[in-house]
Amino acid sequence: MTSETKSFFVLWNGSDDTMPRDERESLIDATANGLAEPGSWSFGRGYGDPERGDRVYLLRTGNDRGLIGSATIVEDGVYEDHHWSGEGVAYYVELLWDVMLDDEDRIPTDVLDAALPEQHFPVQASGTRIKEPSAADLAELWEQHLSDLSRRIGNPWLGGRPTTVERPSGPIPLQRSHVRHYDVTGFAGGSAARAEAEAVERLAEFLRQSGAEPNGYRMVPGPGHAPLLADLYDRTNNVLYEAKASSSREAVRMALGQLMDYRRFVIEDPELAVLLPDRPSTDLVELLAEHRVRCVVPTSSGTFEDIEPAPSTDEGRLVAACRNLGDPAHWFRPLRYRDGLALAIIDSIQSTGAHYTSVRNVLDRYRAVRGEAAATDGTEELLETFDAAGGADQWATTIGNRKPASTRAGASLKATVIEQVARALTAVGVRTAEDLRDAVADRGDGGERYARVENAWTSVEAQSSGITWNYALMLIGIPGVKADRMVLKFVSDALGRTVTATEAAALVSGAASSMGVDVIDLDHAMWRFASGRPVEDPSEQR
């Protein structure tokens, strides 16, 4: 048996200066869980031409002499840096540790000496080449030692090696700076490994602060196979992350392939996500979305956000624009008059082409006249206030205002239109909010009564567009959209083109359904946003 790669011994004198106790314990814990940890180690005078994929075996010198660890070199050559003692310079190699053992679990130096007769012990310098056949014999000895140790302590994950012991898939503790050996040696270098590990640590901390529980996740493809180790598993929200140090096409495609592989072995059927350092190209975002994989990137404020693919439909573009409206749970809620048809008629007609403050003033004056009864007034009670005032002109002066119903020359006052709508509804048997809801319910049964009531309203002067009719229905609790100029502005801005009231109403209804929000609440949020008003209610955020 011959080795396909070169092998080297590196040395440790047992000093905390070169490997602090907490760092070694972290390496022991990580590799005991089948994980791999990035690091670096001094390499003597830098000879031997170390290359990516070469093997390194760590010998402890001094007390408790013996073989205690192994690693794979992840970058070609050596690099020069400050000497670990603090004086002069030294040469180092970038490593990925796959095994680190306690001293009591080592292979003693005298056992190595007996098993490798052609290798001279004690080894004199870090970076010493292990020549054949000693390299192959050492690899076999080390593998057998780890296999025996794994069975003795009942840990099938030791070193990430396949054994015949059954290994369950599932969440595992999140290890500091862990990465997967097959990823780094096969695709990325040590610097990429560190960048990925740092990104995972930042996301893990962000998730903790958000109340989530970040873990690792270990997957077992089958008997005799090494485990697959995901970068991060958000156990609280059931999201499996794969991190990459680059947003390049190669990195994104690799991450996607890994996640597709992982999905087969994860019991919890998680949502999948790729963690990238910055926004990738648009087509890569679309590629991930096609496979139901989220694209997550850090923000300048230290949080993380999803990069969504550009929507391909008008409704999708409108839903995307609705992200500017904030959290629906915190939106201001529109006024509704569940049992107040009179208030609904006044509000719907007074609000067209007007600042809502003036509408509120009219409603307040009507309530002052009617008292608590205003909340349940219907058309008959509303008409009584006109009779008591002496007609629409006087009602406009005492309760309403002098605003016309349209910009047409000679247009009637809004007060006149309010009175005419109330009389038209009364004439077709609609006197209360409940009567109007019953008429609307008739839409699904041929709709003759509904059509008659709608026509009664829209036949009144300046009401033919149906805007006030639809708004009145919304005010008594019937889902709908008041496609006024502000809602039209919001929808048109979202789509980048002008839309009609009918088109806007259909799009807003569809968007509300997609978002899972009340269409009336969404209509109101759009109206507030487009009119420059705050959309979120501070009192709802407490």
Brief summary of the model shown:
The protein has 542 residues and is α+β, with helices and mostly antiparallel strands.
Which tags fit this structure?
single chain; 542 residues; alpha+beta; ph1033 like fold; Trna Endonuclease, Chain: A, domain 1; 3 domains; seven-stranded mixed sheet; rod-shaped
Give a description of the structure.
By secondary structure, the protein is α+β, with helices and mostly antiparallel strands. It has 3 domains: 7-160, ph1033 like fold (Roll), CATH 3.10.590; 170-310, Trna Endonuclease, Chain: A, domain 1 (3-Layer(aba) Sandwich); 341-476. It has helices at 21-32, 109-115, 134-153, 181-186, 190-209, 249-263, 282-290, 314-321, 341-350, 356-370, 379-389, 392-398, 414-427, 433-441, 448-458, 467-475, 485-495, 501-515, 519-530, and strands at residues 7-12, 37-42, 55-60, 66-73, 79-82, 89-100, 107-108, 128-130, 170-172, 214-219, 228-234, 239-243, 271-275, 293-298, 304-306. The strands form 2 sheets. Strands 1, 2, 3, 4, 5, 6, 7 and 8 form an 8-stranded mixed β-sheet that branches. The longest helix has 20 residues, at 134-153. The protein starts with 6 loop residues before the first strand and ends in a 12-residue tail after the last helix.
Itemize the secondary structure elements and their pairings.
Elements: E1 7-12, H1 21-32, E2 37-42, E3 55-60, E4 66-73, E5 79-82, E6 89-100, E7 107-108, H2 109-115, E8 128-130, H3 134-153, E9 170-172, H4 181-186, H5 190-209, E10 214-219, E11 228-234, E12 239-243, H6 249-263, E13 271-275, H7 282-290, E14 293-298, E15 304-306, H8 314-321, H9 341-350, H10 356-370, H11 379-389, H12 392-398, H13 414-427, H14 433-441, H15 448-458, H16 467-475, H17 485-495, H18 501-515, H19 519-530
Parallel strand pairs: 1-3, 12-13, 13-14
Antiparallel strand pairs: 1-8, 2-6, 3-4, 4-6, 4-7, 5-6, 9-10, 10-11, 11-12, 14-15
Helix pairs in contact: 8-18, 9-10, 9-13, 9-16, 11-12, 11-13, 12-13, 17-18, 17-19
